[in-house]
Amino acid sequence: MTKPVVTRFAPSPTGYLHIGGGRTALFNWLYARGRGGKFLLRIEDTDRERSTPEATAAILQGLTWLGLDWDGDVISQFARKDRHAEVAHEMLARGTAYRCWSTPEEIAAFRAEAEARGTYAVFQSPWRDADPATWPDAPYAIRMKAPREGETVIDDQVQGRVVIQNATLDDMIVLRSDGTPTYMLAVVVDDHDMGVTHVIRGDDHLNNAARQQMVYDAMGWEVPIWAHIPLIHGPDGKKLSKRHGATGVHEYQAMGYPASGMRNYLARLGWAHGDDELFTTEQAMEWFDLSGIGRSPARLDFKKLESTCGWHIARTEDAALLHEVEGYLAAAGEPGLSDGQRDLLSRAMYCVKDRAKTFPELIEKARFALISRPVAVDEAASKALDLVSRGILKSLTPRLRNASWTREELEAILNDEAAANGIGFGKLASPLRSALAGRTATPSVFDMMLVIGRDETIARLEEAAAG
């Protein structure tokens, strides 16, 4: 019987959720959700000096915005320190670890001597096979007995077969002399106790896998399936940093990208399913597998991100889109929508969402529905509202008062007005756009009139006609 899939995301709460961490969480989430498994969240907060509650909150907020829900409670690694120490002492009892009283000065001297010889040598503690009769009555660290010959093999689902010579692996400390566990021990104990079957993480952890695998072996535990994914680089092929733009997940929300579009784009960043570029989250869950992850670093492409997000905005239900727009405004520190604006934006969605790639673009296209009189006009709109155009608007408004306010009748009235003035409809549309939205680039005149209604349309036309 196949074991249920259990994946985990285990960030350190020392800052915001990095976009690379967001993608790692997404890969774990997709792999588990697509197989009916569990996706667990562990906060690796053992670095007490750098870990902060604010960073933890930022990580949880970033995951929530991305729509990555986790199973069960969030686990604190620090809260499990007693369990980690228990395992270290069990390793002592098994003979797979030993007590070490080597001082930092002795270790530094060993390394300096090796450096002076021009060689690299891992520290070999004199306490590894020391007679218990020589043990001092003093605090000690617990070191793992690493194999000194042969090789350790990592069968990685992304990187392939990775071989590490055991001669390069030291007897790492698993429990410090003050009784605190090291990261290498804590990770393995937590993953084992949480039942993690697949460790999917950045390939910067690949070297750690060899050392962590030895802890599994020392405890007689089953080793999880490893999958070390390449990092994300900037468009220039260099490691992603602030110089490339936003690196935090929260920044993408504040820039107005929809969560569904981010999930789609991040899933495609380093993973492929044939030639499919645009897909729903449900499709991603169904398709995602480890064999589709490439070994080369993925490059962030903002144009592709925008086009992906535009595809998702166009396909999102209006109510869900409105909810996300309000989340964007809050994240960006912008004023929220009034009840009236919320209603009008909801009514306008059908005619503004098809060509918007971000929420700022969507809001700009829906500007006509969100503004109030007097309508502020930009330079191009002001030029369109010349004396002749204002005269046409003035003669048009009485004809609109008794219109049935259907698209068909509005089209008939406006086309008739254009013909009566010896102009094409395009010549009439420009001052109409300017009067209704204060812009010359807008949704169709008819859509705007239908969204804001008869009274507001006439009021804006009369205002523009009056100059």
TrEMBL record:
Tree of life domain: Bacteria
Motif 'HIGH' region mapped to chain: 11-21
Gene Ontology CC terms, in alphabetical order: cytosol
Example of a GO biological process term: glutamyl-tRNA aminoacylation
Aminoacyl-tRNA synthetase class I anticodon-binding domain sequence ranges: 338-464
Catalytic activity: tRNA(Glu) + L-glutamate + ATP = L-glutamyl-tRNA(Glu) + AMP + diphosphate
Gene3D superfamilies attached to this UniProt entry: 1.10.10.350, HUPs
Main location as per UniProt: cytoplasm
Binding site for ATP: 242
Keywords recorded for this protein, A-Z: Aminoacyl-tRNA synthetase, ATP-binding, Cytoplasm, Ligase, Nucleotide-binding, Protein biosynthesis
UniProt signal peptide: none
Residue span(s) of domain Glutamyl/glutaminyl-tRNA synthetase class Ib catalytic: 5-306
Keyword Aminoacyl-tRNA synthetase in annotation: yes
CDD domains tied to this protein: GluRS_core
Gene Ontology MF: a single term: zinc ion binding
Compartment list: Cytoplasm
SUPFAM superfamilies: An anticodon-binding domain of class I aminoacyl-tRNA synthetases (SSF48163), Nucleotidylyl transferase (SSF52374)
Role according to the record: Catalyzes the attachment of glutamate to tRNA(Glu) in a two-step reaction: glutamate is first activated by ATP to form Glu-AMP and then transferred to the acceptor end of tRNA(Glu).
Family named by the database record: Belongs to the class-I aminoacyl-tRNA synthetase family. Glutamate--tRNA ligase type 1 subfamily.
NCBIfam families listed in its UniProt record: gltX_bact
Name assigned to this protein: Glutamate--tRNA ligase
Organism, scientific name: Neotabrizicola shimadae
Gene (UniProt): gltX
